[in-house]
Amino acid sequence: MSEQTNHEELLTAEQEANLEKAANMIKSIANPIRLGIVWLLKDGKEMSVSELHKGMGLDQGMVSHYIARMKAQGILNCRKEGKKNLYYIEHKKILNVFKCMKI
């Protein structure tokens, strides 16, 4: 990204870092299963891994793996309720992907 022609502006280090973070977030949801998890959690819903795996019709371990990746990227977070972890969307702007795709 650092090559420049006469009419282009260089990105600042902060802009490059923000673009890298955005690209990593997009990569984190660039999968139908991960998008499905985000879809189930939209509208402020909180769900356990068990509820998500039932809602997706997938193996609980697979859903846990995908949740961990999105949590590491700051897309999801969780709160403890009794013995359950309830997952929710931490980075609300990620929902704009559905608007962009008119879903």
Structure report:
The protein is mainly α. It has one domain: Orthogonal Bundle (Arc Repressor Mutant, subunit A), CATH 1.10.10. It contains five helices and two strands. The protein has a two-stranded antiparallel ribbon with strand order 1-2. It starts with 12 loop residues before the first helix and ends with a helix. 17% of the residues are buried. The model has no long low-confidence stretch (mean pLDDT 89). This is HTH arsR-type domain-containing protein. GO terms for molecular function: DNA binding; DNA-binding transcription factor activity. It comes from Fulvitalea axinellae. Keywords: DNA-binding, Transcription, Transcription regulation. It holds the Pfam family HTH_5.
Number of helices: 5
CATH topology: Arc Repressor Mutant, subunit A
Order of helices and strands: HHHHEEH
| Helix content estimate | 40-55%
Query: What integer value in Å does the Rg equal?
Result: 17 Å
CATH architecture: Orthogonal Bundle
Distance between the termini: 32 Å
Strand content of the residues, in percent?
5-15%
Low-confidence stretches: none
- How many structural domains are formed by the residues? 1
Q: What is the CATH homology-level superfamily?
A: Winged helix-like DNA-binding domain superfamily/Winged helix DNA-binding domain
Main sheet makeup? 2 strands, antiparallel
Q: How many beta strands in the DSSP annotation?
A: 2
Structural class: mainly alpha
Summary keywords:
103 residues, mainly alpha, Arc Repressor Mutant, subunit A, 51% helix, elongated
